[in-house]
Each structure stands twice: as structure tokens, then as C-alpha cells.
Write a structure and sequence with these properties.
51 residues, 1 helix
Length: 51
């Protein structure tokens, strides 16, 4: 299960020296996190359907 990434490129290897899977995100409220999580799920489902 992949959560918290709206950018498909985020699933690819990071730049050297960057811990794997790390994204620099601004501090967001719990409500915003939930919204981002839902959008991420929708995007992932859409990508999976296209394959």
C-alpha cells in the first residue's frame, strides 16, 4: 500500500544521498494529510486501471 505520494516519480529511486521514500513536505494539518492521502489513493487506483 502506497500512501502520501501524489507524484508517480516519487515511487522511483531518489537522488543519491536521499533516504529512500523520503519526500520533503511542508507541515500540513491532519485534515490536509487525510485529503492528500485520499487523492493519492484515487491516483494510484487510476494508474492501476490504466495498466
Amino acid at each position: 500500500e502506497i500512501i502520501g505520494s501524489l507524484d508517480p516519480k516519487a515511487l522511483l529511486p531518489q537522488k543519491p544521498g536521499e533516504p529512500e521514500g523520503t519526500r520533503i513536505l511542508p507541515v500540513v494539518s491532519e485534515e490536509e494529510k487525510e485529503e492528500i492521502r485520499q487523492k493519492a489513493h484515487e491516483k494510484i487506483e487510476q494508474v492501476l486501471k490504466e495498466q
